[in-house]
Design a protein that fits this description.
Layout lengths: L1 E4 L3 E6 L3 H10 L4 H6 L8 E4 L4 E11 L4 E11 L3 E6 L4 H12 L1 H7 L4 H18 L2 H13 L5 H40 L4 H53 L1 H8 L4 H6 L3 H25 L3
Parallel strand pairs: 2-6
Antiparallel strand pairs: 1-2, 3-4, 4-5, 5-6
């Protein structure tokens, strides 16, 4: 648990225990159901206004190198007129960054812990949104790598990388998209809770979230285009291979006919003369060479 005080107080709780929940209960008369929910992650994001406090559950995407995709992390906010309590269930980079800003920058601390808890909540969520935007860097880097290798003859391997990247973008979108509604709801209830001057700050949060989603939409369009181009290259390569096999099969056709003659008794008698056998073999060879030359001329080989 971390506590920083100014005119306002920020309390940050990692992996809450029953002892931590009891401490939070003493800070304010929070609803028992909410306190119970703090002991485990929530299934959905939400904003719930009460008489003297707000309860906010916010989800953010975090890239997992093991699964090569984004997973969901959670921050719960209990907001009163003089305190902001954040609860999370794993160590989170944006909250660590916010803690460092408060402890290392006195000017930032004065701005964040003065006026009202709306400004403090704004700065925390702003840090979370900045982190979410930075999380898109790995998508951009992976996409750049795919683009560089697109015409390097590695279509089959790129197909796997594109599939992983598409799944990552989809998971990121599933986590981030609902937060747009949450931030809009926070604006509506926040203006009632803190007053009209907070409208510009809460609108700014929605605008920053919109930027993140616009980046994500651009990446979706780009990866779809890369997938289509890679599929066309792979299809062209497959067709070229099949064409060569078809031509080679046709070239062996005269030889197959020639060898099948030996299964016929009458033909065996005809080929019993060595001179006739050699003449027939040369004829088949010439036909094969002529077909090979014709196919090369037509560009089929």
């Amino acid at each position: 648990m971390r506590i920083i005080k100014g005119q306002l107080t920020w309390i940050d709780v990692l992996n809450p225990t029953k002892k931590d929940v009891e401490f939070i209960r003493k800070q304010h008369k929070f609803h028992p159901i909410i306190l119970d929910e703090l002991l485990h992650p929530s299934a959905r994001s939400r904003v719930e206004p009460y008489d003297k406090y707000l309860f906010l559950t916010y989800h953010l995407p975090i890239y997992d190198n093991a699964t090569k995709s984004s997973r969901r992390a959670e921050v719960d906010f209990l907001i009163t007129k003089d305190k902001v309590i954040t609860v999370h269930y794993e160590d989170l980079e944006p909250l660590n960054n916010f803690w460092r800003h408060l402890t290392n920058d006195p000017n930032f601390k004065d701005r964040a812990l003065n006026e009202n808890t709306g400004r403090l909540t704004y700065y925390i969520i702003e840090e979370v949104l900045s982190f979410a935007q930075r999380q898109l860097r790995h998508v951009e880097e992976n996409m750049s790598g795919i683009t560089k290798e697109l015409f390097a003859g590695k279509e089959a391997r790129l197909l796997e990388r594109i599939s992983y990247l598409k799944r990552d973008i989809l998971d990121y979108s599933i986590i981030s998209k609902p937060q747009e509604i949450i931030l809009q709801s926070l604006k509506e209830v926040g203006i009632k809770f803190w007053g009209e001057p907070m409208a510009v700050y809460l609108s700014d949060l929605s605008g920053d979230h919109l930027k993140v989603m616009q980046y994500l939409d651009n990446f979706k369009e780009a990866i779809d285009a890369l997938e289509q181009t890679n599929a066309q290259l792979l299809s062209a390569k497959t067709n070229a291979v099949m064409q060569r096999f078809t031509v080679l099969a046709f070239l062996t056709f005269p030889i197959i006919i020639f060898t099948s003659f030996f299964n016929l008794e009458a033909v065996n008698q005809f080929f019993s003369n060595p001179l006739r056998f050699i003449s027939a073999f040369i004829l088949v060879l010439l036909v094969t060479i002529l077909l090979l030359a014709l196919f090369k001329r037509k560009g089929w080989l």
